[in-house]
Design goal:
Beta-lactamase, globular
Length: 444
């Protein structure tokens, strides 16, 4: 009996020591967070949400306002990535077509890679070039707007806010380049610059008479494809300007120029059409995540909607996924777009931990590590530098918003899932990112 009592006492002592160690570790993590993020002078006036999760133990290591809502910016591309992986085939469907005795009828899918300079091989273009018959394009599956809900309307011409469309071409932007001959800087500044566009266009172009401008700039009229160019002093520089899609009008005009033939619109649906595939989906997803490509993200969500629902409508797709795929979100989010350009998006750090865990469970951590940028690459180019990659994460940035969510390996090799969302910061995004970097490195 005495022996049994002593054994119980010994067990209780070890249990108490274990709890003490656990509590101490938890307090250490909490203190690091407070020192590195929350109480830091850089962020003391900002709103900060943090969630760190151990998927092996299925428990949170640390949470700070983890169930509060934040504007996530481009962390939304994590959600779009899931939509693309779940509903798009391994090779993107470029178009569907049906051939009659006198016409080739085309049904676009919203594929953003068509004629995009990211991809030198263009199977859809190769197919269209081989056609001798007239080509007619139907946009009957399109049920969305060119610009997303909650986007900053004043950025309508910015390359990072290209219009969404059923049949994108060239990424729905015109790339304007200013170049000069080689020579001394003094001569370069004085001589006339050579300016051209890709693709070549027949639209209105007006040049500024200002010859003293330091920077090359291109803008576009709000409701027309009229471009205004100011020559700068740069030797070689390219600016991307979103063009007005106007439904199918601009796309078919540019495609007609490429094919050297007129391409028509039609109301004839393409029923039981044959598919022409374009690019491996992961090759597009990786670019979307590495450079935080808004256009790819928006079109991914729209393509997923077209594939699953038969209509390219992001609102219907959002409603569907919230009611089916995403019923497990810890807090029901406010979800407005696929890219994170909208400030109507509201997610919690726990939401992002949940979707990141779902991604690695359903598609494997190794695949996520390939699709997400790591230190020294993509949007993490100047951060988390190491000979051995240890972080795979998606950044997010808007005015007053900095976010980072992804996967982190500790020094012992343990994988963790984390989300850090910062809103209302008045410091520079770089300063905030450095604080997040310091915290995650200490967490390792």
């Amino acid at each position: 009996m005495l022996h049994h009592t002593n054994s119980v006492k010994t067990a209780l002592v070890f249990l108490a020591l274990g709890l003490l160690t656990s509590c101490t570790a938890s307090r250490n993590v909490q203190q690091k967070v407070i020192d590195s993020i929350v109480a830091d002078s850089t962020l003391q006036d900002a709103h900060v949400g943090i969630a760190v999760y151990d998927p092996g133990k299925k428990e949170f290591i640390y949470q700070h306002q983890a169930n509060k809502y934040f504007v996530p910016a481009s962390n939304m591309k994590i959600i779009s990535l899931y939509a693309g992986l779940k509903y798009l085939p391994e090779k993107l469907e470029g178009i569907y077509y049906r051939e009659t005795a006198d016409t080739i009828y085309i049904q676009p899918t919203g594929d953003p890679t068509f004629l995009h300079p990211d991809f030198s091989e263009q199977p859809v273009l190769d197919f269209l070039r081989k056609q001798d018959k007239p080509i007619a394009v139907n946009n009957g599956t399109w049920s969305s707007a060119a610009l997303g809900r909650g986007w900053a309307w004043s950025d309508y011409g910015a390359g990072y806010m290209a219009e969404r469309s059923v049949f994108p071409v060239y990424g729905n932007v015109i790339r304007w380049t200013q170049t000069r001959d080689s020579g001394s800087l003094r001569a370069l500044v004085q001589q006339e610059a050579f300016i051209y566009s890709e693709p070549d266009i027949d639209w209105k172009v007006r040049f500024s008479t200002d010859t003293a401008a330091e920077s090359f700039s291109v803008s576009r009229a709000y409701n027309d494809n009229e471009f205004f160019i100011t020559q700068g002093k740069e030797t070689n520089i390219t600016r991307e300007v979103a063009f007005l899609t106007d439904g199918l009008k601009s796309s078919l005009e540019l495609l007609g120029n490429e094919l050297e033939k007129e391409v028509f619109t039609t109301t004839t649906p393409v029923v039981s059409g044959t598919v022409i595939y374009s690019q491996p989906a992961d090759s597009m997803f990786k670019r979307m995540m590495y450079r935080s490509d808004n256009f790819y993200a928006e079109q991914t969500l729209l393509m997923a909607a077209g594939k699953k629902l038969g209509v390219m409508d992001e609102r219907k797709m959002i409603q569907y996924m919230l009611a089916n795929d995403f019923t497990g979100f810890p807090q029901r989010p406010g979800w407005a777009d696929g890219s994170g350009l909208s400030r109507y998006n509201l997610f919690t750090p726990r939401d992002f931990v949940w979707i990141l865990d779902k991604l690695q469970q359903e598609y494997g951590l190794e695949r996520m590590k390939d699709l997400f940028p790591t230190g020294g690459t993509g949007t993490l180019q100047n951060y988390y530098l190491s000979e051995t990659p240890y972080i795979f994460a998606k950044t997010g940035t808007l005015s007053g918003v900095v976010s980072l969510s992804g996967y982190l390996y500790t020094h012992s090799g343990k994988p963790l899932i984390f989300s850090v969302l910062v809103n209302g910061n008045m410091q520079s995004a770089v300063a905030v990112r450095r604080k997040i970097e310091a915290f995650l490195n200490s967490l390792r």
